[in-house]
Structure formats: C-alpha cells, structure tokens
Amino acid sequence: MAARALAGGALQPIRTHEATVTDRGLPFRVRVVDSLARKAAARREPQARPNPFLPYDPALFVAELSGRYVVLLNKYPVIEGHLLIVTRNFEEQETSLSGEDFAALCHCLAQMDGLGFYNAGLAAGASQRHKHLQLVPQPALGELPLEPEIRAALEIGALATALPFRHALAPLDPNWLDDPAAAGPRLAQIYERLLAVVGRGGDRGYGGYNLLI
C-alpha cells in the first residue's frame, strides 16, 4: 500500500537527519528536516485543497474505523509507516478527545506496536485544523531518551514528576487493547485527569498541549 502510494507520487517522505539535543539536563532525540521545499510548493499551488482530509486522497487510504474515522498514510512522513486517524466529518483539532477517539486509536495500537500522539492546535504543532490523531511504529523510533525517567515516575504512580517542563503521566494497561471499545472511555477519563494537572481542563480550554500514548 505504502509502496504503491510512493511510486504514484501520493506519498512524499521528508528527508531528515537525527541529532541529540540536551535541554535542562535532559536528552532529546531530534529529527532535523533537510528540506521542506516540496511541502511548501504544494501549499503554493493555486488548486491546493484547504483541507486535505475532505476529501482525502484515495491513494493514501488505509482503512475505515467504525464509520466515523478513516486511517490514512501521512502524505509527508518523517518516519516510515506514519499513520493518521482522521474524523470522517470535520471537527476542530483543538477540541477535546472523546472515548470514541481513544477507541479508534486503541483499534490501531492493537494491530501495530507504536506511539500514538495528538497535537492540540497550532501552538502544539498541528498543521491541519481537521481533527486527527497520529501513530508511528515503535520499531522505527527505538528507545526514547526520556524512557528511563518516565518509567521511574510511573513506578511510583506519579502524575507529575521532577521533569523541568509542565507535564503529567499515567500508566496504561496493555491488556485494555484486547477490547478497544471498552478502553476508549477509560482512556478518556485518564486524559481528563492529566489535562487538569497541566491546567488544560475545564473552563480553561484545551488548546496548546501534546498527548503521547
């Protein structure tokens, strides 16, 4: 599927090189983009669609999920196998995630060991207003530099730890993936608790945060 989309030009990977950056004593693995010329050119085209998901390019289609979502290949992937879980109808990217959103992600995680993430709005790095979660395969990532600190925090059940930036953590049970429909509401409850810890819940709004699963 990806090979066909690549051969047909629908898939246009972005070349990067990797570097390790230390910030406030913590190591971060960063992918540095070699060139965004093709993506920038596509945005300048007069006929470029303002919303690439309505309609989506059928060459990037992977699967349907519960009639409410479609799974697409990311047109401009930095990592091979990068998937998008997109609402079939338009929803704002900054809106809170629902139990159905999490269930859709769990359906995908049950099929592929990976890292799911959500960029809530422009300030969090979202390039599209149409609501979408993302998933990249774990083997392509390798071990993340912050994993030891995160694992240590989860072992003591900490929601917030000594990491030098605003954040919140919560452990998840891998067995929940056996029943994605039931896992969705559970994850939504945990998500709301995490938002409250970092000051992004309730009447304070939901914009400007990143969620990693």
End-to-end separation: 25 Å
* Assembly state: single chain
Q: What percentage of the residues does DSSP assign to strands (E)?
A: 15-25%
Number of helical runs? 6
The chain-level mean pLDDT equals 86
Helix content: 25-40%
Largest sheet: 6 strands, antiparallel
Shape: globular
Query: What Rg, in angstroms, do the CA atoms define?
Result: 18 Å
Order of helices and strands: HEEHEEEHEEHHHE
Number of strands: 8
Helix-strand makeup class: alpha+beta
pLDDT < 50 runs, ≥5 residues:
none
* Spatial arrangement of strands, main beta sheet: 3-4-5-7-6-8
Describe this structure in words.
The protein is an alpha+beta fold and 213 residues long. Helix content is 27%, strand content 23%. It is built from six helices and eight strands. A hairpin with a 2-residue loop joins strand 1 and strand 2 (26-33). It is globular and about 50 Å long. It starts with a helix and ends with a strand. The relative contact order is 0.15.
Q: Main attributes?
A:
213 residues; alpha+beta; two-stranded antiparallel sheet
Per-chain topology:
Elements: H1 2-7, E1 16-23, E2 26-33, H2 37-44, E3 61-65, E4 69-73, E5 83-87, H3 99-111, E6 114-120, E7 132-137, H4 138-141, H5 147-155, H6 180-197, E8 209-212
Antiparallel strand pairs: 1-2, 3-4, 4-5, 5-7, 6-7, 6-8
